[in-house]
Design goal:
With 226 residues, the protein is mainly α. 88% of the residues lie in helices and 0% in strands.
Length: 226
Amino acid sequence: MNISISWHVFLFNCLNKEILFNKLKSTTMKTIFKNLGCAVILMWALTACNNEKKANDEAENKMDLNEAANDTNDEKFDKPTEADAKFVTDVADINYAEIKLGELSQTKGVSAEVKEMGKMMVTDHTKANSELMALAQKKGFSFPEGASNDVISDYNSMNDLKGLDFDKKYCDKMVSGHKDAIDKFEKAATDCQDAELKTWAANMLPALHMHLDHSQKCEEMVKNMK
């Protein structure tokens, strides 16, 4: 009888130990997987931060093409001609911005009106930039080979928008951008030292006013869309 009881006690103890071992094993594995998951998330976060920092550093360190052209012109010309050259580089950057955002509107835009306006901006500002480049070469002005860092940064921000958010922001930018452009061109049409550049600026004003009118109508239409 005592032997039987002892045997049952032995089996009971063994069973309890096995259950305890399995619980401990299960708890340990859960802890391991939990810690492993945390480590993976931490590594992903650190990698994302490093990549973002690297992208920001590269953007900061990248040579600004517009500034480079301005620096070259500053060294080559005296103040009056330098102002003409600055107008050229400013307008070139406006054209690059309008072209890049117009191209983006073809893929990101929702409304047909925004896409059509973007297409018009690409066509007209590409033509204007070609004319301006030819004029700059004739006058010996350094012409930026591409968009400034500010334009690229703005393009990237716009590229993050979707749907109507993009359409509304694009129309807003077209309105404000063309108001600024008209101010620059009106000033150049009276203040430029170079006669050809002054005439070109004056001749561009009707098209810019037409763009502004188109942009304002598109802006009003998009505001009413849901």
